[in-house]
């Protein structure tokens, strides 16, 4: 499905259709399809909303520079259009950055915060510089630069690497560039974590090559009401590597967030 919001067309789908809402946001270079299996198998009884982030999947890009706050506003408008007053919002990696921006800007719209192989800390200077270098490489060679370098780091499983490669290679170069700018310039949310008033779920992969376990541990220490799910066999993509463990974790987190 597509929807015109904030001056561009956003691709999304809604699974199951009724019940308390769960908005799941994919990570950098990927698209909403990564969540579909987990959502179909484990999250019936909930209204599961799967958007494509601006410039990814079926969502168009905008000419103006992309900011994490703007990506969060896209999610807010989607909730508005779907007439969802409050949702649990869960994000994978970059999707977690969007989730934290949304929680920061519109805390009243969230019933829970899910951070799946994600982090709250901003980029180091070196990391920011690497993102600008990647932007220059995309400008020269297109999306395949990211597909080649990122997909082997997402998982140790060759078929998941291939699946990720195919999605990233299809992503519009302008979408990747916008997301890299938004990630490079995002604020640090470490001091924000203790102020989050709703339940939080932190999911970490024991074999994650992108977000080390110690970053998850730091978030767990700072979040006031937190459930921690460490999946030893998962890398950066637990929704594909360990869908049952993640699906059951999300399901029981939904029960926590919406228990009356
Ligand atoms: C992602 O998986 O969304 C990105 O690798 C996150 C990042 O680069 O910080």
Task: Describe the model.
The protein is α/β, with parallel strands linked by helices and about 260 residues long. Helix content is about 45%, strand content about 20%. The protein has helices at about 35-40, 70-80, 95-105, 125-140, 145-155, 160-170, 175-185, 215-220, 240, 245-260; strands at about 1-5, 10-15, 20-25, 45-50, 85-90, 110-115, 200-205, 225-230. An eight-stranded mixed sheet has the order 1-2-4-3-5-6-7-8, with helices on both faces. The longest helix has 17 residues, at about 125-140. The model has no long low-confidence stretch (mean pLDDT about 95). The structure holds D-malate. D-malate binds near residues 27, 93, 94 and 183.
Order of helices and strands: EEEHEHEHEHHHHEHEHH
Low-confidence stretches: none
Name the bound molecules: D-malate
Strand percent estimate: 15-25%
Give the tally of β-strands.
Answer: 8
**Helix coverage percent of residues?**
40-55%
Amino-to-carboxy terminus distance = 32 Å
Discrete helix count:
10
Quaternary structure classification = single chain
Q: Gyration radius, to the nearest Å?
A: 17 Å
What secondary-structure arrangement, pairings included, does this model have?
Layout: E1 2-5, E2 8-15, E3 21-25, H1 33-42, E4 47-51, H2 68-81, E5 87-92, H3 94-105, E6 110-116, H4 125-141, H5 144-154, H6 158-170, H7 173-184, E7 200-205, H8 213-222, E8 226-231, H9 238-241, H10 243-258
Parallel strand pairs: 3-4, 3-5, 5-6, 6-7, 7-8
Antiparallel strand pairs: 1-2, 2-4
Helix pairs in contact: 1-10, 2-3, 4-7, 5-6
Bound molecules: D-malate (MLT).
Residues 27-28, 93-94, 183, 210 line the site of D-malate (MLT).
